[in-house]
Amino acid sequence: MDKEYFRFYIKVLTALHIEPIAIHNELHTVFGDEAPPFRTVQRWSKWFHDGREEVEDQERSGRPITETTCENIKQVRDLIDDDPYVTVDELEAQSGPSHGTVQRIISDHLQLKKVTAGDWRLCDVVTGDESWFYHKQIGRKSSNAAWVARGDPSSTVVRRSHFAPKTLPCIFFKSAGPVLIHSFKRGQTIDHQYYINNCLRPVIDEIRKQRLFLGIQSIKLHHDNGRSHMHEDVVNYLQSEGVTIMQHAPNSPGLAPCDFWLFNLIKQDLDHQDDSESLHGAVIKFMLSLRKEEYKKTFDKWIQRMHLCINNWGDYFKHLM
């Protein structure tokens, strides 16, 4: 369909105060891959909202833009984020810089390269797990420090009661940030069906929201070998959604980002919490406070750990780091 028809549809729905995301979803439902990317819908919706009337492309005076600016770098970056499979010709048509300028932005400024279908990309990997978080924090050195007179014995560290209040969050994240933070209710039986309905389905739904154009295409999901994770129904559900399951080596917390990085990091930052609700909120706040670079760095370290494990024939490798 001609792109001007899409723009006219966007113009009409924008006048009806329909949000760009809803417009994009409707177009994609009807036209599939022929529909414009979300960024394009969002851009035209903003222009129409700001008073633009024409749906035709405005004539560009003179030669194409050949100067590399922060503005056109960001524009190309946004278009690629929305559709990693977009071509240079499509980027040129949707942005404004010349073909050569787009190529320079991609290679020199964004430092990206095209990979063939089938190659694994970190942005396609989602990892997650569960861990107990106590409401009262008594294990830190700072909380156990006390002033004593010179020559007096150090204070006694109080051990935590086995029945101390605690909450079990389930956290999934990817190299760009968190995907799901779910806390199990006290006394809840956590079987494979609960795991599917309350963890995996929300993860899949959130990925679809975050990847409006690609959806869950090429997603790889990693979790450990817990009983509820490995159940046949869990495997069948993920396969039915087209999600590839990453195999996890038995008894290998050093190869799980939640275990070698995230959970300890959160627990070190947590203050005392009154109940499960406040702890859940504190975990969410901490996850959102982490910069995107921290998540990306952890995935890079994950790859390094995998290489060390392989090069050491699966034996203990932490001393090699």
Description of the structure:
With 321 residues, the chain is an alpha/beta fold. The chain has 2 domains: 3-109, no CATH class; 122-140 and 163-320, Nucleotidyltransferase, domain 5 (2-Layer Sandwich), CATH 3.30.420. It is 47% helix and 10% strand. The protein contains 13 helices and 6 strands. Strands 1, 2, 3, 4, 5 and 6 form a 6-stranded mixed β-sheet that branches. The chain is elongated. 24% of the residues are buried. The model has no long low-confidence stretch (mean pLDDT 85). GO terms for molecular function: nucleic acid binding.
The CATH homologous superfamily name of the largest domain equals Ribonuclease H-like superfamily/Ribonuclease H
Helix content: 40-55%
Following the backbone from N to C, one meets helices and strands in this order, namely: HHHHHHEEHEEHEHHEHHH
| CATH architectural label of the largest domain | 2-Layer Sandwich
> How many separate helices?
13
| DSSP strand tally | 6
Uncertain segments of ≥5 residues (pLDDT<50)?
A: none
Short summary of the structure?
The protein has 321 residues and is an alpha/beta fold. Helix content is 47%, strand content 10%.
Produce the secondary structure layout:
Blueprint: H1 3-15, H2 20-31, H3 38-49, H4 70-82, H5 88-94, H6 99-109, E1 125-130, E2 133-134, H7 141-144, E3 166-174, E4 177-184, H8 192-210, E5 220-222, H9 227-230, H10 232-240, E6 244-246, H11 257-269, H12 276-289, H13 292-311
Parallel strand pairs: 1-5, 5-6
Antiparallel strand pairs: 1-3, 2-3, 3-4
Helix pairs in contact: 1-3, 2-3, 4-6, 8-10
Protein name: Transposase
GO molecular function: nucleic acid binding
InterPro entries: RNaseH_sf, Transposase-MT_Hybrid
